[in-house]
Amino acid sequence: MENPPERWGADEVTKFLDFVRNNQFATFANRHDIFGRYIDTDIGFRTLINDGLQHSKLWFSGFFVTRAHSVFLATISATCSAQVVEAHALNRVVLEQAFYGFYLAYKPELRETWLKRHDDDASLHEVRRVFKIADMLEALRAVDAVEADAANELYRRAIDYGAHPNERALTHDLRDEKAGEDTRFDTDYLFPQGAAFELGYKTTAQTGVCALAMFRPLMKERYDMLDLTGRLDHLKKGL
Question: How far apart are the C-alpha atoms of 43 and 197, rounded to whole Å?
């Protein structure tokens, strides 16, 4: 839109949206290394969705792949706008979508259980019993220990830095100073530079690659044929 609508910028919400958009422009212009990885990972997701899952027996997991991709795009938006804490929370959702998709491909007999989650209290209890991240990690470890270690580390980091109100998420950039007899605390909503931003952009790149790689052990031939294996090898360099 060339011109914003009437009254845009007259309140703090739209001012904030303009500010984060400017941060996205700055990240795009100044950090080609960041955007290059994000774009390449996005291409990988689109290749898997449009070509890799066509006529595949793992078609059901495609629903989770598309959602992981969608959340990954939302995470890029948050990361590049410098909403680092919020991006960590979204990274957790990317991983969980991928975990569920992988697990239901690894154990397709659980599809019906998952689909019946809201049928009654017993069904809800069964889903909570069966679908545990720890069990999904162990299933992934059975086919790819390296990827399982990466997923576990990223999942823990997401929880520590934003997905839960944990100490690191709260105090990541908390500052205090004396003001007479009082103490003033300052914190940032946005982290456009510094260690917090660097960790955030790298974690988002790692999370997207990890989610995309999670399905390779179950689709090796298709990943090789579509050069997704080569793309992943390229994306992992330096991460």
Answer: 24
pLDDT confidence of residue 48? 97
- Convert the pLDDT of each residue in 173-183 to its tens digit: 666 677 777 76
What single letter denotes the amino acid at residue 162? G
* Domain extents in the chain: 12-174+186-236
Residue 70 pLDDT? 98
